[in-house]
Design a protein that fits this description.
heterodimer; A: alpha/beta; Aconitase, domain 4; four-stranded parallel beta sheet; 8 helices; globular; B: alpha/beta; Aconitase, domain 3; 2 domains; five-stranded parallel beta sheet; about 30% helix
Chain lengths: ~200, ~450
């Protein structure tokens, strides 16, 4: 994973609540064997509507997605994160981000930012009034800044460090092989083995 | 200190705890399927990593597989072949298409006795919450986390909060476990459980057979929860005893002693408590495009203007997509298709509940009706009981096991504009096929609806 310190640029005002991962990328896109090739599937059904905000040229090049509450609910498909990142997004700002989506995002360097409803609303208003509005998400300082808006967001220290340093989770865990082996030595003997 | 059941299981699985870091947890069982795993195996290959515990890993094929006798579509076949190849290469047991043990991953593991109280279970599928019905702590993960579990048999996770949903009282006639969970989601909303493990408690839950508990735990994720769990009891132990992977002999006795200690302490506190009176429930039908948008079958499609302000816009969009008018009685909504299947409702009890309604009746002409058993073992058991004849004689197609029309990854999809009464767990836009319209119901209501041609209860049928 590439280190992520600060994301700054335009934002796309999706501003819908309960956007599930089936909408972000429909299931027929999940037949691929690769981590790439999902950009054309992003919001595939909604994009057929010419009035859908992703089709609005004024927001072309957006790096931040402004969404409603409970963004990324439903299916665990990490493809939703891959599709967003391949389409240029580096952060999602929403009043609430669903648990599995949040984990998937952090593992890929897409920054999930939870802010209160009113602040997200102000960002949406600003971007709708002027699509060139610049928003900055600073992972190090845990802040979001835009003209007239300054807010802090929560991210746990470990997740923040991993983003800042672009660490490989598996390599980190493999440093604790001895602790894993010690745990394994005391597991109950009735626990099932598949083979 | 008093602890809840999920906290106790969590504590038992901590491999490493360090300040400023999430706990590193050991995973007792990792379930794998063909759709979310290929990129994880590829990641291992690239860095020459191995699967740390192939003996705690089980693979099957469910999302993509055809449920009729047609071969898989070429692009699905590629994924099915990749699963078989990865299982071989990394030494993982796989129940492939055609195996008598193949089926939906969340149906086969409990059925084989692999899902046991007190275990931690993960799978690259959000409905992994299902396994909580047996007192396991089980949750869905993404592909990067799959790779991590394959390589280390552990996962680093932020500690979840706790929530109790207590359901008390006898379920009224025509009501099933599905109606209980739809009522819970209607109450707490699609994000009511975010960040938390929901423990289902109370006399209604205790009275449910294992199949019903699996249905309820399955849909925990539809309330946004990390996981759902039911404290193990005699129903759990009776379900497990004698199953292929359940402990035997002296091991069974020792396991049982341990499992009996797995309960929330009487004075433990939950972060949130919700109580539901089961005696007032009616069968639920979803009208919208998320599982919280539901009413009872006695009700009408709601008017968005009458809903709380923050729910209006979503409701308007949902009604437009579903092509429904506010004020329409639910029983007046005609349907084009019926799907009885999915990890929510495709176990033997579910099929039996539907067959009881279908016995001696015919599906209304023009309606496409599909029955898809959750596993090949469920299918075989159902056929031994003659349920296949009941479905077929009623005009249902009787299929092979798989996820099928729950998520439309195989050819079992709705056509644009088609309306379906479905026993699955998600009514998202396009979930059962682009432009398809889904209404979630219980198996008995799905069966009665297939006969009537519009939403109906078994007791409505003459």
């Amino acid at each position: 994973m590439e280190p992520v310190r600060r994301i700054a640029g335009r934002a796309l005002p999706l501003a819908r609540a309960d956007v599930d991962t089936d909408q972000i990328i429909p299931s027929h896109w999940l037949k691929r064997l690769e981590r790439t090739g999902y950009a054309d599937g992003l919001f595939e059904a909604w994009r057929r509507d010419p009035a859908f905000v992703l089709n609005d040229d004024r927001y072309r090049g957006a790096v931040i997605l402004l969404a409603g509450a409970n963004f990324g609910s439903g299916s665990s498909r990490e493809h939703a994160v891959w599709a967003l990142m391949e389409s240029g997004f580096r952060a999602v700002i929403a009043p609430r981000v669903a648990d599995i989506f949040k984990n998937n995002a952090l593992r890929n360097g897409l920054v999930p930012v939870e802010l209160d409803n009113a602040t997200v609303g102000r960002l949406v208003d600003a971007v709708r009034a002027d699509p060139a509005t610049q928003i900055a998400v600073d992972v190090e300082r845990r802040t979001v800044e835009a003209p007239g808006v300054r807010a802090s967001f929560e991210i746990d220290d470990f997740a923040r460090t991993r983003l800042l340093e672009g660490l490989d989770d598996i390599a980190l865990t493999l440093r604790h092989e001895a602790e894993i082996a010690a745990y394994e030595a005391k597991r109950a003997d009735w626990l099932p083995r598949v083979r | 200190m008093a602890n809840t059941l999920s906290e106790k299981i969590w504590e038992r699985h901590v491999v490493r705890r360090a300040p400023g870091e999430p706990d590193l947890l050991y995973i007792d069982l990792h379930l794998v399927h063909e759709v979310t795993s290929p990129q994880a195996f590829e990641g291992l290959r690239l860095l020459k990593r191995r699967v740390h515990r192939p003996d705690l890993t089980l693979a099957t094929m469910d999302h993509n597989v055809p449920t009729n006798d047609e071969p898989p579509e070429p692009i699905s076949a590629r994924q099915i072949e990749a699963m078989a190849r990865n299982a071989r290469e990394f030494g993982i047991r796989c129940f492939p298409m055609g195996s008598p043990d193949q089926g939906i991953v969340h149906v086969i593991s409990p059925q084989l006795g692999l899902t046991q109280p007190g275990m931690t279970i993960v799978c690259g599928d959000s409905h992994t919450s299902t396994h909580g019905a047996l007192g396991a702590l089980a949750w869905g993960i993404g592909t990067s986390e799959i790779e991590h579990v394959l390589a280390t048999q552990t996962i680093a996770q932020a500690r979840p909060g706790t929530m109790a949903v207590t359901v008390d009282g006898a379920l009224p006639a025509d009501c099933a476990a599905k109606d209980v969970i739809l009522a819970i989601i209607a109450r707490i909303g699609t994000s009511g459980g975010v960040g938390k493990v929901i423990e289902y408690r109370g006399s209604t839950i205790r009275a449910l057979a294992m199949e019903g508990r699996l249905t309820i735990s399955n849909m925990s994720i539809e309330a946004g929860a990390r996981a759902g769990i039911v404290g193990p009891d005699d129903i759990t132990f009776a379900w497990l005893e004698g199953r292929p992977y359940a402990p035997k002999g002296p091991l069974w006795e020792r396991a049982l002693e341990d499992w009996r200690s797995l309960a929330t302490d009487p004075d433990a506190r939950f972060d949130r408590d919700v109580a539901i009176d089961a005696t007032g429930l009616r069968p639920y039908v979803t009208w919208g495009t998320n599982p919280a948008q539901s009413v009872t079958i006695e009700d009408r499609v709601p008017d968005p203007d009458a809903l709380p302000a923050d729910a209006r816009e979503t409701a308007r969009r949902a009604l437009a997509y579903q092509d429904l008018r506010p004020g329409t009685p639910v029983r007046d909504i005609a349907i084009d298709a019926v799907f009885i299947g999915s990890c929510a409702n495709a176990r033997l009890d579910d099929l039996r509940a539907a067959a009881d309604v279908l016995q001696g009746r015919r599906v209304k002409p023009g309606i496409r009706a599909l029955a898809v058993p959750g596993s090949m073992r469920v299918k075989a058991d159902a056929e031994r009981m003659g349920l296949d004849r009941v479905f077929i004689d009623a005009g249902f197609e009787w299929r092979e096991a798989g996820c099928s029309m729950c998520l439309g990854m195989n050819p079992d999809i709705l056509r644009p504009g088609e309306r379906c009464a479905s026993t699955s767990n998600r009514n998202f836009e396009g979930r059962q096929g682009p432009g398809g319209r889904t209404h979630l119901v219980s198996p008995a209501v799905a069966a009665a609806t297939a006969i009537a041609g519009h939403f109906a209860l078994p007791s409505d049928l003459r």
